[in-house]
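As described in the Methods, two query proteins were run sequentially through the folding procedure within a single session, without resetting any intermediate state between them. The first query and its resulting structure tokens are shown here.
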Amino acid sequence: MATETDNTVQNQFKIDTFSCDICKQSFASKQTLFNHMRTHNIDILLSCKYCDNYFTEKRKVESHTNKIHKKDIEREEESYRVKLVNDGGKNGQKQSFSCNECDASFPST
């Protein structure tokens, strides 16, 4: 049986938690709750370009990509280097190069 003294000690060391109104999961900080709330809104989730995983933060996408898809990244970089070598200097003319991510063009030097 808990005494009044026991209850006072428990209340003194009680940690505030922040609960999700949707799924009732609890978090130790407002920021963690904020990040969690993004999981309930698919419109703002960030997707991995190599697989079907979604993330709430850019740093998590980058971490996932670097850990899980390292070979895919290396393959992409090698393909880009080969393209630069193969496309450069055709017929003595300067070539422009397109970015695979944003389609921006850059003149060769």
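Immediately afterward, the second query was submitted; its sequence and tokens are:
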Amino acid sequence: VGYTGGISRNANYKDICNGICDHSESVQIDFDMNKNSYDEFLNIFWNSHNVFRVNDSRQYLSAIWFENEHQRYRAEKSRDELERSSGKKVNTIIVPLTSW
């Protein structure tokens, strides 16, 4: 658990809550691709919170921060599939991981 998505150094909870910091609260998952696929984690992500909610707070942003092009492609593809199957716009951003 930590903060990502911003350019500020030393992001902390107090600064994020006060809107001083541009990071979002987030969870970083390290996994062994021999045991779990990235798609499995995407499926859990899409089904664990309301991805259709409008992002009205940087602090509680629905986002996927990817580390490589394979992750970007799989995240965008699964988002597009969810939009097609639900008929709703997914309001989750998919952006490169810049800092943690």
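Residues 42 and 61 are 16 Å apart (CA to CA). We note this only descriptively and draw no conclusion about the first query from it.
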